[in-house]
Structures are given as C-alpha cells and as structure tokens.
Design goal:
The structure holds two protein chains of two kinds. Chain A is an alpha/beta fold. Helices cover 26% and strands 22% of the residues of chain A. Chain A has four domains: 131 residues, Rossmann fold (3-Layer(aba) Sandwich); 174 residues, FAD/NAD(P)-binding domain, CATH 3.50.50.60; 183 residues, 3-Layer(bba) Sandwich (FAD/NAD(P)-binding domain), CATH 3.50.50.60; 59 residues, Alpha-Beta Plaits (2-Layer Sandwich). In chain A, helix 3 links the parallel strand 3 and strand 4. In chain A, helix 6 packs across helix 7. Chain A is globular, with a radius of gyration of 33 Å. Chain B contains 13 helices and one strand, in the order E-H-H-H-H-H-H-H-H-H-H-H-H-H. Classes of the chains: A alpha/beta, B mainly alpha. Strand 26 of chain A pairs parallel with strand 1 of chain B, so a sheet runs across the interface.
Chain lengths: 696, 183
C-alpha cells in the first residue's frame, strides 16, 4: 500500500486568503492511502521542504503530493526535495490550488475551498498509481554553427572557439566583417572601425577551432537540440579559391560594361563583375558575380575558347591577368555551388540587419545623388571609401573617380569637384513611422551625432544641421558625447524635416520646422543625410522558418523572454544575437553575442543533457502498425520499423517531447505516455467526476 | 518666398550673415554667457521665468535657441531682455549650468553696443544714473506723510554711494555711447 503525504501550502495569503486550510486538511486526512497531512506558510521555503524531507527520511511517506502553486515553476523544486531525501522524484504529484483556484475564486471562499479539496483528491488518486522513473541522458554534439560573420557572429565564434568548441562560421558574403566593416569610426569613443574590427576578422579566420565558410547560406536544418543536421550551400565563386591569392590583379581589368554598383560602398561607386569586397576582406578571395559578368572572351566556364586566326585561345581579361590560374574558365562550374553537411549541437543566429533604401522616401528627393543614407555617409568619409575619405558632394564622385583613373595612368588631370558647405541630417526616416516601422532604430541619433562631430572637427567651417524628433542617447558616455556635439556648434533643431527639394545646381532645399522657435524653417544644403531605419534582412523570415524559431511583428527574431531569456529562442539549442534580434549598437551586439556563446556553452559543455523520462513508449505487442501516430507527431519522433516482418511504431527517445498526441490517438492503446498513463489520468478524471471521492 | 505669406525662417541666410559678421553665439559668449553652448533646450528656465509667464516673446529658452541658429537683427528691437527682473531662478534651475540670466544680460550688452535700445530701457538707465535704481521710488510725499524719510535708505539717500555708482557708470561703455546725460 502506498503511504501518501499531502503538504498544503498557504502561499502567504495567496491560497490561505480564499481556501479554508483547516477544512481541507480534515477532508484530505480521510482520503485513501493518505497517512500524513501538513500545512505551512511557504512550502517551497527551506523549512517547508524540510517538512517533506523529514517525513520521507523517517519512512512515514513514500508518495508526495504538494498542494500549492504552479508546477511550471515549482515542480522541479519539490522533485529535487524528494530526490534529496532518497525518494524517486517521480513519486511526486502537484495540485495547483492557487492559480485556477484561490486566485480565480477569491470572492467565493466556500467554493474555493471545495475546489481545492477536489483538486487535491484528484492528485491523490493519481499519486496512488505513480511509478518510479529514471531520467534519461542524450548525447550532445559539441560543435556550434554560427550564422552571420558580422561583429556579433565573430565574437560568438571567438568565445566558443576559445573555450574549445568547434565552430562553423557561415557568412553569405564573400568576406566576413558585416556592416561594421563599412563604418568609418564608432561612437562614443570614435575608434576607427576597421582598426578594431579587422584584427578580430583575422583572429577568427585563423583560429584552429573555427571553420570559416563564406559565400554560403543555410539551406535546411533538421534534428533537435544537441543533434542538428545542417545543410549549407556554398555558392559558386567561379574563382578557384585554392589558387586565388587575393592579389587583386583581376579587379581593374574587368571591362566598364560589366561594372555594377559596389555593395561595400553602398552604391557610391562601381565594382567589376569579378571583385574582392574590400581590401581588408577575410578571406581575401575574388568571386565572379555571374549576373554582372558579360563573358567578354565570348565563352562561359567549361566552354571551348574562341581562337585567334593563328589558333591561340582568346582569354577573358581576368583569366589572362591572373598569375595563379585561379580565374581559368577551362573547367565547367556548377551554378548551384556545393552542399556541405554539418553536425552541430547548437546554432547561433547573428545575421544582422540592412538599412532602408532612400528610394522609399519620395518626400526627400531620393533621385538626387546628394541625398544619401547615413551608411553612404560612412563610406563617403571613410579612408577606404570611394574618395579615400575626401569630402566632396556625392554628385561629383564620378568626376573624382575619372580624375583618379587618369592620374593612376600617369596622365595630367585637374580635379574639379565641389566641396560641401552645408550638411543636413534628418532623423527617424522610416523609424517611428506607422507607414514603415513603428520601432526606434536606436542607433541613428548617436551615429548622426558621430558623423556630425567627425565632420565638424575636421572641417570647422561646415554648417551642420541635425533635425531630430527626440535626441535619444541612453548609453554609457552617450549624453556626454551629445553635449560635445552641441558645444562644437552643430545646429540641433527639434522637428523632423518634411521635405527636400532638388535644385537645378544639385543643391537641396530643406524644409523643416523648429519646434523651439515655433517657426517653419528653410535652408539650402549641399548634402542631405537620411538616417534610414534599420530593418531585418530580406531572408530573415525564411531562415527563421528553417530553424523553427519565430519572428516578431516587426520582422526581427523573437527571443524566448525579453528580460530573462534574451538570447534564447523557443527552439532549444538555437540562440540569437546582434541586430537580427532588433536594432542595437556595437557594444550591445557584442554583449549579446557573448551571452549567446555562453548560453551555447552551458548547454553543450556537459556533453550530455538530462531529459525527463516523461515521453511516449510503444508496446509493440499491442501495436497493430496502423501508423496513425506517425504523421500526428509534431516532432517527427515516430517511425514504423520492421519487427519480425511486421510494421511496428517506434518512438525516437531523443526527439520525443512528451506531448502525448500519439498516446491519445492510438486506437490500440499501445502507446503509454510515462507520467501520464491511462490509469493515472482516468483516476484523476473519475475522482473529479465524483466530486472528490477517491475510488478504492 | 510666396507673396502675402509670412516668410519662413531662412537658416541659410542666417548662416551667411554669421560668416560676414561673426557668430552670434560667439558674441554672446564674449559678453558673459560663457556656457551658452551647453543648452539642450530642456525648457526648465522658461517654466519658471516671469517673462515667459507674462508673454514676452523672446524669453530665456527661446532667446538661446534663436542665438544658436544665428538670429540677431530679429532680436535687437525686442524689449524682453530689459524686462528681465534678474530674479536668477533660471540660473538656479538650469541642469546644464548655462545661466540663462547671463544670456539675457549678454543680450542687453549686445543691444547697447548696437544702439538698439528701447525707450523703456533708456529711461531705466537714466534713472539708474540719477537715483541709483533702474526702477526708482516715486511718491516721496506719501513717505513724508507717514513719517518716513523722503528717500529710502539705499543708494538714493546715500550721496557717497550714488557718487561711487556714477563713477562706475562713467567707466562703462554706456558713457562712451552717450545715450544718457552724464555730467
């Protein structure tokens, strides 16, 4: 006969305020197999747990029922108490007499008391039928996949790799570095972005525990925590990376017809069809953009070369100039690239963001070359930008590039470009706007101040206006940075610009409102910088679907809990960090990346993971092999296997989450969900149906 | 500009004028409002300013903003700075230690230099020289009637103090400008 102990918690006033504890005790004492009934102010506190442990140790009870709050938070606590006192922890059952009882019936104490009695009686009825169970352990693969090679992905990879974990770092562009590589300097310290980023790019690429897979995208993800199978598509580079040394000889020979807007310079200059994203790229390898390549030699990869009259093959300029033969077109190349399969235990998503294009905002004359996004401004003032950091109006960049080409060829040329006298910044373009994004992009205030400060310090005669809705500078040393800008004489005007008009001389008429003066204002500006919103990458939703994680209404990846589990997702083993989770600056991205790496480590470091034994099991003697359960399982955990020539269902213990769908659906009652057996659940239902009378 | 419609504030014009005549903010700083640039337009000064309360247009916060965008001509004819009662509440409340009161007074100094002084102010300056008070006591008969000395116990009745004050005033720019008679 089981010896059941029932422990009733007052939860301070939460339960005792509505439930008559004494009356419940008297009722419970009479229930079959109940040998001990105790109550306490806080059963989960140390003295409360000690009551239970003491009774177990003395041999008074061998089944424990706690009537208290929710098992969601407190079941693990009481199970541990049972285990510590030497009782199998699955000899424990919990009755929630708070959430749906005392709280729900606070104003009807009699009925609350009655309901508490019935709930406890049902728990006792189940407790009589409990079986001892053993926890299971699944093996965890200790490799980690990091998706995205920006600053967040780099830091997550480095932390994991330094801790001894093997990391696959997958990046969709030919080089790692992400958006940070495009920045000139970084707030609030004005460090040069490249100076702090590029050493990390080299470090992560050379780390013995990191396998860098660039120009690649995640194709599919299967499996669950600890054992993911990921297929990654390495895109076709059309350049033999084993041979390419990154010398760059091919870059300048690609003909003008094959030139397209340069992604790294945000379209402010052109790049060839064959290109290396930027001089500090890691890995520094060339790729051919097949959409831009015009096959100027008249042949595609693997085709016979055309020949001159004397029979010599005609080679493409890139092919001809390449000193290592990396650009050879002799071999055919699969446009689909190559699939690699990775086995990993955890995945970190760090795919970053993109900025909204200016073309969305007709009111700001986006057709003017002198209306640019803030990221374009970064390129314009960067030493690695199209003008090597020389400040000119963007409409004169083509003139500048022509001049540069002539000078490089040794020709004499005069540089005639216009330098700006006035620069205007417009905040919240696409952010805090019901038509586009309702959220604040968080970094724009600071980067506008940064760009204004860098410009004003370098060119004190510049007139710089920043039109703000609100100046938001909540960060360490951020407001001090803002004050520095004000003291430099940067004109800060409260009020968003309503329109920008392109003038015939390529200057811009800016129409704004000064809320402090209460007056509409106008000014003529040489450059207008739009702080366009940070938004999720186009393919983020698709990636989220592959990973089984969700995105919020605004399109960024959703964390499990905003405050307590900020880098976890609803899919165990998948972590998120950086701007893929929401707009944030570099310090926050790095902090989150390190948090995600640490979470992945604490998951994988033990090598094994304890899982509750509350999963389904098939009695293959009863199973008819009908297969109804197979498609119903939401986790793909059931398959039909051959047992002595007959089909029988089999549950994959690593995949089963214990939802019970199969057990409920099985027509032969061949599936048992441990911890929730037919007998246990029916005993509970019968007791409730008989208003608390436990059948013998 | 559209005819019949009041002009908007043209920031480019202001900037160009500043390039010729010097930055208004720099002049105001030179005239004593050293911490002008720290203003973040929070409005605390205006919330307690008697001038803002009674409806003067260019009260402290707004005056500072106008200076920061380079307005000057537009401010010279305005009597607001002369109405400032120097209560100094703005200086006490300012979270950035701008001392808006100093800005008001620097504006007065600029106006004096530019000969842009409203009659009201000239009268006050004259009284200052004459009686030692910009706002001086009238109704001397009434004082006499209730048994008080004709002049209050201040500079007004202290011949030496009044002479000292006049000596100081004669040393200031005010004397050079010749706005009020100083013999």
């Amino acid at each position: 006969m089981p010896k059941i102990g029932v422990y009733i918690c007052h939860c301070g006033e939460n339960i005792a305020g509505a439930v008559n504890i004494e009356e419940v005790k008297k009722f419970v004492e009479k229930l079959p197999d109940v040998v001990v009934v105790r109550d306490y102010l806080f059963m989960c506190s140390d003295p409360g747990q000690e009551l239970i442990k003491e009774d177990i140790r003395k041999g008074l009870v061998d089944r424990v029922v706690v009537a208290a709050c929710t098992p969601r938070t407190h079941e693990p606590i009481f199970r541990r108490a049972c285990e510590e006192a030497g009782l199998n922890k699955y000899y424990f059952e919990m009755a929630n007499i708070r959430d749906q009882c005392s709280w729900a019936h606070w104003h009807d104490k009699e009925k609350a008391t009655e309901k508490a009695k019935q709930l406890i009686a049902a728990a006792v009825a189940k407790a009589r039928l409990l079986e001892p169970l053993e926890d299971r352990y699944i093996d965890l693969n200790k490799n980690v996949l990091v998706i995205g090679g920006g600053i967040a992905g780099i830091f997550a990879s480095l932390d994991l790799a330094n801790a001894g974990f093997k990391v696959y770092l997958v990046e969709k562009s030919p080089s790692i570095g992400g958006n940070m590589a495009k920045l000139d300097k970084t707030f609030p310290t004005n460090d040069c972005s490249a100076c702090i980023l590029t050493p990390l790019m080299v470090e992560v690429a050379n780390h013995p525990n990191v396998e860098l897979i660039t120009y690649a995208e995640v194709e599919s993800v299967e499996g669950t925590v600890g054992n993911f199978k990921v297929r990654v598509r390495k895109k076709q580079t059309y350049v033999d990376w084993n041979k390419c040394t990154g010398c760059g000889a091919c870059l300048n020979v690609c003909p003008p017809k094959a030139r397209v807007p340069d992604e790294f310079n945000e379209g402010l200059s052109l790049r060839g069809a064959i290109y290396i994203p930027f001089p500090q790229a890691v890995p520094k390898k060339a790729v051919i953009d097949p959409d831009a390549c015009i096959s100027c030699s008249g042949r595609w990869f693997g085709e016979e070369p055309r020949r001159t009259k004397d029979g010599k093959p005609i080679l493409a300029p890139c092919e001809k100039v390449c000193p290592t033969g990396a650009c050879s077109r002799d071999e055919p190349r699969d446009p689909n690239g190559e699939i690699v399969e990775l086995d990993v235990g955890a995945i970190i998503v760090a795919t970053g963001y993109r900025v909204m294009d200016k073309s969305n905002f007709k009111e700001f004359s986006p057709e003017s070359p002198n209306v640019i996004t803030a990221l374009q401004m970064e390129r314009l003032i960067s030493a690695t930008g199209p003008t090597e950091g020389k400040l000119i109006v963007p409409s004169d960049i083509p003139k500048y590039l022509d001049w540069k080409k002539k000078v490089e060829k040794g020709k004499e040329a005069k540089l005639e470009v216009r330098k700006p006298h006035t620069i205007t910044f417009v905040s919240c373009v696409g952010s805090r706007d019901e038509r586009y994004h309702t959220y604040c992009s968080k970094v724009c205030c600071m980067y506008m101040l940064k760009q204004a400060m860098l410009l004003k310090e370098k060119y004190p005669d510049l007139d710089i206006y920043i039109f703000f809705i609100d100046v938001r500078t909540p960060g360490k040393d951020f407001d001090e940075y803002y004050m520095r800008c004000r003291k430099l004489g940067i004109k800060i005007i409260k009020g968003k610009v309503g329109g920008v008009q392109r003038l015939p001389d390529e200057r811009l008429l800016v129409k704004g409102f000064d809320a402090d003066l209460g007056k509409p204002v106008e000014l003529i500006s040489d450059i207008v910088v739009l702080a366009t919103a940070i938004e999720p990458n186009m393919d983020l939703k698709d990636l989220a679907r592959k990973l089984g994680i969700s995105v919020g209404a605004e399109g960024f990846l959703r964390e499990r809990h905003t405050k307590l589990y900020p880098v976890d997702t609803l899919t165990e083993g998948v972590f998120i960090c950086g701007c893929a989770q929401g707009p944030k600056d570099i310090p926050d991205s790095v902090a989150q990346a390190k948090a995600a790496a640490s979470s992945a480590m604490s998951l994988l470091a033990p090598g094994k993971m304890r899982v509750e034994p509350l999963i389904s099991e098939v009695d293959q003697k009863k199973c008819s092999g009908c297969g109804i359960c197979v498609p119903l399982c939401p986790y793909g955990a059931i398959e039909l296997v051959d047992v002595n020539g007959k089909k029988r269902a089999k549950v994959n213990e690593a995949k089963c989450k214990g939802c019970g769908v199969c057990a409920a659906a099985c027509p032969s009652k061949a599936i048992t969900l441990h911890g929730f057996t037919y007998e246990q659940v029916l005993a509970q239902i019968r007791t409730l149906a008989r208003r608390g009378e436990v059948s013998a | 500009m559209i005819e019949g419609v009041p002009p908007v504030l043209n920031l480019t014009e202001l900037a160009e004028r500043e390039k010729e005549e010097g930055k208004v903010s720099e002049i105001i700083i030179r005239f004593g409002a050293e911490n002008l640039m720290a203003c973040m337009q929070c409005g605390a000064c205006a919330s307690i300013c008697p001038l803002a309360r009674v409806g003067f247009e260019w009260f402290n916060k707004k005056l500072i903003k106008a200076i920061l965008v380079g307005m000057k001509e537009e401010l010279l004819d305005d009597p607001t700075p002369w109405a400032c009662v120097a209560c100094n509440r703005c200086t006490e409340i300012c979270p950035r230690q701008v001392s808006p009161f100093e800005v008001m007074f620097a504006m007065r100094r600029l106006m004096v230099e530019e000969f842009a002084i409203p009659t009201l102010a000239i009268e006050a300056l004259r009284a200052l020289y004459e009686y030692g008070h910009a706002v001086y006591m009238t109704g001397r008969e009434a004082r006499k009637k209730v048994g008080l000395p004709e002049k209050p116990p201040s500079t007004d009745s202290d011949e030496k103090a009044l002479q000292d004050l006049r000596t100081i005033l004669k040393e200031t720019k005010l004397a050079q400008l010749g706005l009020i008679p100083m013999e």
